[in-house]
## 1
Amino acid sequence: MEKLIGLKKIKTAVFISGTGSNLKNLIKFAKIKKTPISINLVISNTHKAKGLKYADQSNIKKKIFNFHNISNAEKKILTLLKKEKIKFICLAGFMKILSSNFIKKFGGKIINIHPSLLPKYKGLNTHIRAIANKDKFAGCTIHYVTAKLDSGKIIIQKKITVAAKDNPTSLAKKVLKQEHKFYPAAIIKIFN
Ligand code: GAR
């Protein structure tokens, strides 16, 4: 647990690759009074990420990096993060794996949201796997990012029940609803 220094908000970058509903939700969260963060930068690995529009709508600086050459992209991102004085990174549907070198060089905290009850279902297609295995429970996990995929220390995990009629799409929708509730809760837990 850490105390916030005065009323200064922690400069945060959100990394996305897709729809950006978590980004949208975090932008909303960063505007409320009790929030510990301000969102100053949105980074994506693709121009196609629909969520980039939320950065535009809130006048947040956005930047797209081509990950064809990962080390090159990470080097450029680190320079930008330093320039913008970013101290905290939230991965929100970011589909690239950050290297241990990046994590070490950034130095600040990096957290991720994952749509499963980790350590179950690391990686992709979590809901398809949960339905195929007839799991009774699913959920989401907010965890620290380490060099090992989806394996860092868990901050918050939310468990939900899988209904008999659920399919991967309906389950994803249910879990996403919880993600929007618990990603901000995890951030409060870290900094308050
Ligand atoms: C979310 O369900 C998030 O947990 C997941 O991608 C979705 C992004 O949705 N992340 C991962 O699978 C990371 N491995 P969003 O773009 O609407 O926030």
## 2
Amino acid sequence: MCGIVGGIGQFPIRDYLINGLKTLDYRGYDSAGVALAEPEGIRVFRMPGRVQALDEATPRDLHVVLGIGHTRWATHGAPTANNAHPHTSMNGEFVLVHNGVIDNFRHLKNKLEAEGYVFHSETDTEVVANLLEFHYNRLKNVKAAMLAMIEELQGSYALAILKKGDLKHIYFAKNRSPLVVGHGEGKNLLASDFLPMLKEGKDFAPILDHQYGYITEDTIKIFNEDGSVANPKFTRPDLKIEDIGLQGYPHYMLKEIEEAPAVVRRLIDNYFDGNQFLFDPKLINKLKAADDIIFIACGTSYHACLIGRRYMEYLGKRSEVYIASEWAYHPFVSAKNPMFVIVSQSGETADLIRCMEIINSRGAVSLTITNTKGSTLERDATYSLLLFAGVEIAVASTKAYVAQVALLSLLTGAMDDSTAVVSHLYDVIKAENAVIANSESLKPTAKYLSGKKDVFFLGRGTDYDVALEASLKLKEITYIHSEGLPGGELKHGPIALIEKDTPVIGFISDPLTDLPIRSNFKEVEARGATVITVVSKSLAKAGDSITVPDVKEYLSPLVKVLVAQYLAYFAALELKVNIDKPRNLAKSVTVE
Ligand code: AGP
């Protein structure tokens, strides 16, 4: 998704902007640009491709007083220089960057063209720039023009705006797309999240929906939609700049896979004090009283919710799981007293923000489980729980999935008033460390997979949930087509795809499904498939391919998923693709 940075004050703004965009590049983008305000005027540099190219094209000897920068993940218009941000209004009055989608941009563009505005790009962002200029020319006051612009905009936006001749202010406005302000010594900053500001800033506050305002060298002014002055809550993240580095790893993805044991350990420490769970009793009571636990998520987080649902069913509770973009447009609920559980690593996924709006409009109770403190989904839920997984930089989510499943198991233990899950999780930590210690042994299998066109993952029960996540991991970083399937479903159609040497990876964790899933493997082997089994030690048989240490079956996803993550990672290494930033993908999907 697009990334925004901005800064004003006595510090090397040009380098801060460029480095900030590099920090944000994990969000996914295809062009980048900066606008640098000097006493002589605003200089704009923008181009398709990586931030490195922008860095080389942007002079270092400018006298920059303030500036904004942007990485663009194309929504309206191809990733060309012309469509890259920043965009300048027709008469040069304003220069701005935008993250989000303006739903009514076509209507606004027609209205502005009728007023004589000429457009040079296909973007909705240029419409915003000209709309602001149009109102400014009418009202001759920036704050009034901002308000008038906001009243006309429909859709999502995080905006950072420079005004011609104004060397004191960077203006901003926000609705549904993330924007954070940061305060530093003799400087003020803004960005899509706090990471790019971590070096220069000390305290940070999220901008809320429909808020707007400006930063100067020594003030941060935020207004609510009604024009009243907002009183933001500044926090200081317990994160140091060095925590973000690779720390000797070749890729963030590998670093984050191998953080799994520490992530599980940290969750236990944060939610269990050795005797009892530390969850808010009101939250636990709400979950226990609900007549339906409705999970909503996307992608990897959705796969974690599939396991969460099984945990609720173990407790005898009715539970459902929905993909956010589906539920948002068919928000059916039959339960009288449902509890919504939103799971999101970033806490900013647009599909989920839309669901949260529907949930809140109905006055329903919600819990957000997220890795991002201060995120939109955390703020807008009735209750929230943090994953404490540390910043996840790689686009492919690994440690966040582990944290989500582990947290859901602890939450279930608390609901069941049983602390057995804690000792079971210590066994998981041991098992994960064993898989990590033995990860080199997975390379030959990964090398074999890297040469394939289609890869199938099979499982039954929680192993099917893992098969779905394993398939997503492989396809999103190697671009190899893959499917996760329930073992028993193959013969109802998909088996037609099996041919000689088609790789089929099968997970076996549950004695109950051991025999039936093995007969599914026989079915595909009989049609020429190459079956690779990933099996719990106590169920292993001669000829099995990969054996992992035993843990309680309900927690086996926390161990099997590491094998899947390694296979995807090592296969991607073979293919020499961009592992941390796969093509077309973004870390936080802030558009619908
Ligand atoms: C996972 O590897 C993907 N990057 C993607 O599916 C991701 O899980 C999904 O976009 C949801 O993101 P969220 O957890 O931040 O809401």
